[in-house]
Amino acid sequence: MARDCRAPAASSFMALLLVAAAVVVSFLGGGAEARKSSNITVVGSVYCDACANNTFSKHSFFLKGARVLIQCNFKVNSSAAPEEISLEAERTTDQHGVYKLDVPPVDGFECREGHELRSACRATLVRSSSAACNVPGLRGSTQHIALRGPRGAAACFLNLNALNFRPAKRDRTLCHGGGSNAFGSSLFFWPFLPLFWPPPLGFPSPAAPGGGAGDGQ
To answer: Would the pTM count as exceeding 0.90?
Structure first.
């Protein structure tokens, strides 16, 4: 029985990847209708920096219902001369602390992978959903990574670095030593792989201390 209990763990992980891949193929490769809905997706996340040290520690958690403002400038190639298209929109984070903006197809837009800043999007904090964690910390994104979908530029993901709120007062008992198991950097990207979303169950996204989570209206 011991062998039967250990083997399914690996197979379950592989099954999860296969399901995720199937969802991606369905989303990106479902024909012209799927491609028409959106070819640019801006994603990012908001978390509570519980120890107010601008890192994601074991006491940190992602915020559901936080509101952000997304501003984008897209450089496009036209027959006459290069043009720039600007847009902005507010979005609210989901249960995993992730916000997403689907942008309709932009003629002449070229998705360049990596930290290419020819076209760029920026997110800034608007409002927290938690009364216990509502002081802006890292309030504006400073970097993004562009990732292409399986069909090349037909699907382009712009992944912005995570933003955070923090409590008004730092809990010295909870955060003794600055909070262990931290990333050690204020800049990190979540979700790491937009193509394989949502994340596995168990990623830190509990309600805020004191039950202050709301709907981010």
So the answer is: no
What pLDDT is stored for residue 76 in this prediction? 77
**Which residue type sits at 112?**
R
The stretches of the chain forming alpha helices (DSSP H) are 2-28, 32-37
Stronger pLDDT, 152 or 157, i.e. the higher one: 157
**What is the Cα–Cα distance from 101 to 74, expressed in whole angstroms?**
14
Here the tokens at position 48 are: 């509570």
CA distance 193 to 159: 9
Q: Tell me 61's DSSP state.
A: E
Q: What is the pLDDT of residue 58?
A: 83
Q: Greatest CA span in the chain, whole angstroms?
A: 70
* String of DSSP letters for 140-203: B---EEEEEETTEEEEEEEEEBPEEEE-SS--TTTTGGG-SS--S-S--BSSS-GGG-SPPTT-
User: For the purposes of burial, counting CB atoms within 10 Å of the CB of 55, is it exposed (0-12), middle (13-18) or buried (19 or more)?
Assistant: buried
